[in-house]
Amino acid sequence: EVQLLESGGGLVQPGGSLRLSCAASGFLFSSYAMTWVRRAPGKGLEWVSGISGRGSTSHYAESVKGRFIISRDNSKNTLFLQMNSLRAEDTAVYYCAKDEPLAGDAYSDWGQGTLVTVSS
Amino acid sequence: QSVLTQPPSVSGAPGQRVTISCTGSSSNIGAGYGVHWYQQVPGTAPKLLIYDNTNRPSGVPDRFSGSKSGTSASLAITGLQAEDEADYYCQSYDSSLSGSHVFGGGTKLTVL
C-alpha cells in the first residue's frame, strides 16, 4: 500500500524559510516522479513543483520560481520542498503526490497534507 | 485566474446526473494532453477519479465518467449520492508554461 506522509509545516514569519518533507513507502520511490500541490484557504488546488525519479529534472510554478527548491533523497525515500522568502500568499495546505506514468502521469496517490501559515 | 476554466458550482438532487466542464486552450487540452479529474471532500486529500480523459482507476464507481472534445473536457456523475458532495478539479499539462501542470479552478458540487 502506497503511503505518503508530509511533515514540516507550521507558522513562519514573512520572509522566513521552511522545509517540508514527504516520507514515502509501499512503492519503489526512485522510479517515480513526485509533485507538490497546495491549496490556499478559500482557493483551489495549485500545482507547485515536480521532480523526476532520479532528481535530475525539476519544474516550478511561476509563483514560487526562485524561492522554492524541490529535491529528493532516494536512499531515504523522502521528498523535500525548501521554501524561502515566504509570503502571506504561500499560506496553504501542502500535499505531496506520486505521479503514475501508467495513468498519464496523473497523481495517483496523495499525502494527508501539512499546513503552512505565513504570518507575523 | 486558472488556465483551465471550470464552473464555480453545480448542484443536483440525489439520483440525478450532473456534468462539470473544463475549458482549456490549444496549449493544453487542445494540444492533446490528457485531462485528469480529482475529487476533494472537505478536510481530506484529493483523490484521483479519472485519468487520461476517460479512464477510471480501480475502485472508482462507474457512476463517474470523463470525456474530451477539442479544447474542453467534462466529468459526468450519474445517480448522485450525498457522499458525492465535494470539490472537483480538472488537471492537465500546458506547453506554454515551462514544465507546468495546471489545475482548473475547481467546482463545488452540492447534492440537494
Mean pLDDT across all residues of chain B, rounded? 95
Assembly level? heterodimer
Q: What Rg of chain B is obtained from the alpha carbons, in whole angstroms?
A: 13 Å
Element order, helices and strands of chain A? EEEEEEEEEEE
Number of strands of chain A: 11
- Rounded mean pLDDT of chain A is 96
Structural class by secondary-structure content of chain B: mainly beta
Keywords:
heterodimer; A: 120 residues; mainly beta; 4-stranded antiparallel beta sheet; 11 strands; 0% helix; 52% strand; globular; B: 112 residues; 6-stranded mixed beta sheet
Note down, in words, how this protein is organized.
The complex is a heterodimer of chains A (120) and B (112). Chain A is mainly β. Chain A contains no helices and eleven strands. In chain A, strands 2, 4, 5, 6, 9, 10 and 11 form a seven-stranded mixed beta sheet that branches. Chain A starts with a strand and ends with a strand. Chain B is globular. Chains A and B meet through strand 4, strand 5, strand 9 and strand 10 of A and strand 3, strand 7 and strand 8 of B.
Topology (SSEs and partners):
The complex is a heterodimer of chains A (120) and B (112).
Chain A: E1 3-7, E2 10-12, E3 18-25, E4 34-39, E5 45-51, E6 58-60, E7 68-73, E8 78-83, E9 92-100, E10 106-110, E11 114-118
Parallel strand pairs in A: 2-11
Antiparallel strand pairs in A: 1-3, 3-8, 4-5, 4-9, 5-6, 7-8, 9-10, 9-11
Chain B: E1 9-12, E2 18-23, E3 36-40, E4 47-50, E5 64-69, E6 72-77, E7 86-94, E8 100-103, E9 107-111
Parallel strand pairs in B: 1-9
Antiparallel strand pairs in B: 2-6, 3-4, 3-7, 5-6, 7-8, 7-9
